[in-house]
Amino acid sequence: MTRVIETVWLFVRGEESVRMMRTTTPEGRVRLLVYGPGNTNAVHEFPDDMACAEGEAAFESELVADGYSLERFTDRRSGTDRRRAPRGPDRRRD
């Protein structure tokens, strides 16, 4: 199963907010989804993590320059949690 990593940033300025979500696709590309301000939405797709990080940084700089501040940062991971995944036979030595 391909693991999808989601990172979410919430920027606020007064009553306005902008939410950015970073997700990976099953093909390995990275998407930056931008919701706000208001009803505006945008999807930016990047070939890899580094290109997406550069895009995130540029967009974050624009938001800060426009008076927004980071309100919340969340790093969520979905997929199989290794701590709860069924394990194979015990391979420890007696």
Explain how this protein is built:
This protein is elongated. The model is unreliable at 79-84 (pLDDT under 50). The chain has one domain (4-77). It has one helix spanning 49-65, and strands at 4-13, 16-24, 30-35, 41-46, 69-78. The longest helix is centred in the middle third of the chain and has 17 residues, at 49-65. The protein starts with a strand and ends in a 16-residue tail after the last strand. Strands 4-3-2-1-5 form a 5-stranded antiparallel sheet, covered by helices on one side. It is of the alpha+beta class. A hairpin with a 5-residue loop joins β3 (30-35) and β4 (41-46). The protein is built from 1 helix and 5 strands, in the order ββββαβ.
Main β-sheet description: 5 strands, antiparallel
Taken as a percent bin, the fraction of beta residues is 35-45%
User: Considering DSSP H and I runs of 4 or more, what fraction of the residues is helical?
Assistant: 10-25%
Categorize the overall geometry: elongated
> Terminal Cα separation, in Å?
33 Å
What order do the SSEs take from the amino end to the carboxyl end, as H and E? EEEEHE
Give the strand order of the largest sheet, numbering strands 1, 2, ... along the chain.
Answer: 4-3-2-1-5
The overall average pLDDT, rounded, is 82
Instruction: Briefly note the structural class of the backbone.
Output: alpha+beta
Query: Helical element count?
Result: 1
Query: How many runs of DSSP E, i.e. beta strands?
Result: 5
Radius of gyration: 18 Å
